Amino acid sequence: MAQPLVSVILTTYNRADLLSRAVESVLMQSWQNWELIVIDDGSTDGTPKLLAEFVRLDARVRTLRQENQGPGRSRNRALHESYGDMISVLDSDDAYAVDHLYLRVRYMIDHPEVDFIYGGYRAIGSDTQMLVPDMDDPSIQVPLDECVIGGTFFARRGVIEEAGGWDHGYGEDARLFARIRSSFMVKKVDFPTYLYHRDTIDSRCTRLVP
């Protein structure tokens, strides 16, 4: 396989019933020069069998399995295993619109001074699902629009590594973003191509609600 321009990193744990939606949204991208690295973080459901089928169907899909370590450490491993010049993130209960990668690659090509972009999502769910637990005090609910959505992160190779990668624990996306913003050129985009499924009962944020 040729050197991919974009590495999509996806980590998953016991989401066999949701994972196909995420993976298939990458397979259907209008921008096709990508690799998808999936870390199976110790799933005990049908995830391994499902991922094996995707690997058989498309050589651009690579999977790695490990004992459960949490999303932050899993993303760091996927990042270490990636080859692309640009890094994209996808949560296993979300999806990309068909032009998600194309629009972000185009933006980075047109703006060589920019190191990292974020934003550009469409939240799917009810009004009450547009609130998430606060990073510092999960007993407090804050509007989704005030949050950084980690699945929208799109970076040039080396940016996330130099910022120290993801921490372990809730809020790791926001902490990584703060470190990146302090050292790199960061811009927010507004094309809503990240499909953020707040209607998923298994959502990490949902499970934190008291």
Outline the fold blueprint:
Blueprint: E1 6-12, H1 16-27, E2 34-40, H2 47-57, E3 61-65, H3 71-81, E4 86-89, E5 95-96, H4 100-110, E6 116-118, E7 121-124, E8 131-133, E9 141-143, E10 154-156, H5 159-162, H6 172-183, E11 186-188, E12 194-197, H7 204-208
Parallel strand pairs: 1-2, 1-4, 2-3, 6-11, 7-12
Antiparallel strand pairs: 4-10, 5-12, 6-10, 8-9
Describe this structure in words.
This protein has 210 residues and is an alpha/beta fold. The protein has one domain (6-208): Alpha-Beta Complex (Spore Coat Polysaccharide Biosynthesis Protein SpsA, Chain A), CATH 3.90.550.10. It has seven helices and twelve strands. The chain has helices spanning 16-27, 47-57, 71-81, 100-110, 159-162, 172-183, 204-208; strands at residues 6-12, 34-40, 61-65, 86-89, 95-96, 116-118, 121-124, 131-133, 141-143, 154-156, 186-188, 194-197. The strands form three sheets. The chain has a seven-stranded mixed beta sheet, sandwiched between helices. Strands 5-12-7 form a three-stranded mixed beta sheet. The chain has a two-stranded antiparallel sheet with strand order 8-9. Strand 8 and strand 9 form a beta hairpin.
